[in-house]
Specification:
Largest sheet: 3 strands, mixed
Strand order of the largest sheet: 1-2-3
Shape: elongated
CATH superfamily of the domain at 5-97: K homology (KH) domain
CATH topology of the domain at 5-97: GMP Synthetase, Chain A, domain 3
Radius of gyration: 42 Å
Distance between the termini: 101 Å
CATH class of the domain at 5-97: Alpha Beta
Order of helices and strands: HEEHHEHH
CATH architecture of the domain at 5-97: 2-Layer Sandwich
Structural class: alpha+beta
Number of helices: 5
Helix content: 55-70%
Number of strands: 3
């Protein structure tokens, strides 16, 4: 089911409020270089999931997660004051996996490019296993069909001649057998 336009609008507003709060209001030294990447709000506007990324090491990510969980109440009160809706959504912070996925895809694309370059080098001196153009063309098919028909006619005549010779041999053998009796 698609999100309602109101939920999308509120999610965009929450994203701006949280980003501004992290930049100016929250002074926790554990807070690293944080970027709010996305906010998703449920259809009933009761829960908001804030997705973020942290530039740095695993330790920086863990410290930032602890700082965000401790500042969750203050951020929620700021969101409630600026949104002006009856119920302020509860906020959950989630570390976004997009940068790791992007790095993995980038690595895979680089490996594929290297393999393509290797194959291009191998193809430079390669030659065809058969003819350069292995496909039949209509003019050649007509010539080939005529040659095949001629070969078939010759083969049929040869078969007929061999059958006649076999019949004559059989008749001669029968005559020889009768003479012996």
């Amino acid at each position: 089911m698609a999100d309602s336009p109101r939920a999308l609008r509120i999610a965009g507003t929450i994203k701006k409020i949280v980003a501004r709060a992290l930049e100016t209001e929250i002074k926790d030294p554990r807070l690293g270089f944080v970027t709010v990447t996305d906010v998703r709000v449920t259809g009933d506007l009761q829960q908001a999931s804030v997705f973020y990324t942290v530039y740095g090491s695993e330790e920086d990510r863990a410290n930032t997660a602890a700082a965000l969980s401790s500042a969750k109440g203050r951020i929620r009160s700021m969101v409630g004051g600026e949104l002006g809706i009856r119920l302020t959504p509860s906020i959950e912070f989630h570390l976004d996996a997009v940068p790791e996925t992007a790095a993995s895809l980038e690595k895979s694309l680089h490996a594929a490019a290297v393999r393509d370059a290797e194959l291009a080098k191998m193809r430079e001196g390669a030659q065809f296993a058969g003819e350069a153009d292995p496909y039949r063309h209509p003019a050649e098919e007509d010539d080939a069909n005529e040659a095949n028909e001629d070969d078939e006619d010759d083969a049929n005549e040869d078969d007929a001649n061999e059958d006649d010779e076999d019949d004559e041999d059989d008749a001669n053998e029968d005559d020889a057998n009768e003479d012996e009796d």
